[in-house]
């Protein structure tokens, strides 16, 4: 009885989630998948357990912040910090911390033991996200802190601000915004279908119905409505 009710709670939160603006997590992601999110295109249902894992990630953040708020060597300047309001994108960094000399933007990521064990460097998608935080907060370096959610081990990587990368990410988002306004579905990513993004993509079914290049959304929408 409870399982069904709890699953329904999570699945209902997912319904009709038409995206209205970019989130920092969209930076560097497949533009076609982000386009489909904006248009609320038909997507594969997520399992309720995956949605619960997102909530579990929030608890991991609290677990890490608790000692940070108590130790003397590090000062938490602010936690859950929104980027300054602007038109293109919104996002909230986990914290801005200081070691007494330098400021760092802290971003905490949790993952399962298998992924954690093989993690030798920061993940590209996490670096992209952090670069935009560094850009908007005007802070020259950040920390990506990874938590193994099964064993609670930690790994950390210091990331320096890369202005070229940040500007390219913002330019790509501005281009995508233009395509969303003009109803032009972007091309598939060049690494389709081997890319991890394709493996976990909720839109892969409709993506296969379109060809690889740019296409008109209104025409394609009629095609998928008939399918
Ligand atoms: S299947 Fe791959 S290329 Fe197609 S929308 Fe998803 S992530 Fe993009």
Radius of gyration: 19 Å
SSE order, one letter for each helix or strand: HEHHEEEEHHEEHEHHEH
Number of strands: 9
CATH architecture classification name: 3-Layer(aba) Sandwich
Q: Output the strand order for the largest sheet.
A: 2-4-5-6-7
Mean pLDDT: 91
Helical element count? 9
Specify the overall morphology. Answer: globular
Counted up, domains total 1
- Which range best describes the helical content: under 10%, 10-25%, 25-40%, 40-55%, 55-70% or over 70%? 40-55%
> Separation of termini?
35 Å
Q: Please, could you describe this protein's structure?
A:
It is a single chain. The chain is an alpha/beta fold and 227 residues long. It has one domain: Trna Endonuclease, Chain: A, domain 1, CATH 3.40.1350.10. It contains nine helices and nine strands. Strand 6 (141-148) and strand 7 (154-160) form a beta hairpin. Helix 1 (2-14) packs across helix 3 (48-68) and helix 5 (124-137) crosses helix 6 (163-182). The longest helix is centred in the first third of the chain and has 21 residues, at 48-68. The chain is globular and about 60 Å long. The model has no long low-confidence stretch (mean pLDDT 91). Bound molecules: iron/sulfur cluster. Residues 30, 32-33, 188-189, 192, 197-198, 201, 203-204, 207 line the site of iron/sulfur cluster (SF4). Iron/sulfur cluster is lined by residues 30, 32-33, 188-189, 192, 197-198, 201, 203-204, 207.
């Amino acid at each position: 009885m409870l399982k069904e009710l709890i699953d329904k709670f999570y699945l209902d939160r997912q319904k009709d989630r038409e995206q209205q603006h970019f989130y920092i997590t969209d930076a560097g992601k497949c533009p076609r998948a982000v386009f489909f999110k904006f248009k609320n295109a038909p997507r594969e249902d997520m399992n309720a357990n995956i949605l619960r894992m997102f909530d579990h990630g929030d608890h991991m953040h609290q677990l890490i912040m608790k000692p940070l708020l108590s130790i003397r060597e590090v000062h938490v300047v602010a936690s859950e910090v929104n980027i300054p309001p602007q038109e293109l994108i919104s996002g909230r960094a986990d914290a801005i911390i200081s070691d007494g000399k330098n400021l760092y933007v802290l971003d905490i990521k949790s993952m399962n033991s298998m992924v954690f064990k093989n993690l030798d460097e920061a993940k590209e998608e996490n670096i992209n996200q952090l670069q935009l935080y560094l850009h908007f907060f005007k802070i020259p370096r950040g920390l990506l802190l990874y938590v193994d959610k099964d064993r609670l081990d930690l790994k950390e990587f210091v990331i320096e601000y890369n202005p070229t990368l940040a500007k390219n990410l913002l330019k790509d988002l501005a281009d995508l915004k233009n395509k969303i306004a003009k109803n032009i579905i972007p091309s598939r990513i060049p690494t389709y279908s081997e890319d991890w993004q394709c493996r976990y993509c909720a839109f892969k079914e409709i993506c296969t119905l379109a060809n690889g290049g740019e296409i008109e959304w209104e025409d394609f929408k009629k095609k998928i409505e008939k399918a």
